[in-house]
Amino acid sequence: xxxxxxxxxxxxxxxxxxxxxxxxxxxxxxxxxxxxxxxxxxxxxxxxxxxxxxxxxxxxxxxxxxxxxxxxxxxxxxxxxxxxxxxxxxxxxxxxxxxxxxxxxxxxxxxxxxxxxxxxxxxxxxxxxxxxxxxxxxxxxxxxxxxxxxxxxxxxxxxxxxxxxxxxxxxxxxxxxxxxxxxxxxxxxxxxxxxxxxxxxxxxxxxxxxxxxxxxxxxxxxxxxxxxxxxxxxxxxxxxxxxxxxxxxxxxxxxxxxxxxxxxxxxxxxxxxxxxxxxxxxxxxxxxxxxxxxxxxxxxxxxxxxxxxxxxxxxxxxxxxxxxxxxxxxxxxxxxxxxxx
Length: 341
Known about the structure:
The chain is built from eight helices and 17 strands. The chain is of the alpha+beta class. It folds into two domains: about 150 residues, 2-Layer Sandwich (D-amino Acid Aminotransferase, Chain A, domain 1); about 160 residues, D-amino Acid Aminotransferase, subunit A, domain 2 (D-amino Acid Aminotransferase, Chain A, domain 2). Helix 2 packs across helix 3 and helix 6 crosses helix 8.
């Protein structure tokens, strides 16, 4: 299939305009049943829009892959469709039906197939986002909403992503609070993480490791990903309890770790002090895939995880996951959805 004239070998994780995007609107008490493809570009929005004044907006993130079978596929898009249902409900946004969501995603990808990086050169990142766009001066749900799906060809999220990450466990910030909105992809969760990550990177770190707001002995998430720890044959990740994002990659790794590696998978409390002596630590997400953690700093002390090298389980799990996503190996779970043949 013909591709755009893009330097595929040097893609970063950044904005790259494509041909088109999906746009639809819905009144507060209506249903999502319209919309369609429009040229990629700016949109007009009121300065009093609910999303601009009160942060009423949620989003998703998934990828399209040019696979080894020379076709473009999606990876578990139905999980993103289900997750945005929970996100929209939590923020008083009209629920986006999974079929509507999946149709919009597929149409955008099909119309921008030539922007999907060639096999092995990257992915087409897909960003579905819904905002309260009606003028809203008082603190209340907006009266109208806009749903957009746009895309961008991307490379690695972390530059030089073959190197294990250097994290700092935050002593000054929490990602979210118990009974808050940490378990949905609300835009406010990410604006709150900007200052911590700016400070972390200024200190030479890659990302922030957040601790639980009501018990700082317990780990919650990395700023842009879920976190795992392996100790022997046990693989532990924080349990979903209202402040942990139910990641699609997280769920996939839980399944693969048990089925393919025979690990004893545990969803429970993950103590910060246990990370320091772990056999390996890694994080997962649509953008980061599976990335090992080499160092964690806390209270001014740096703890090196297993000599700071790539973890054995993380490396194998990433190979299996990417192999399924790119159709290099068998997909026994039905996770891959073809968009083009």
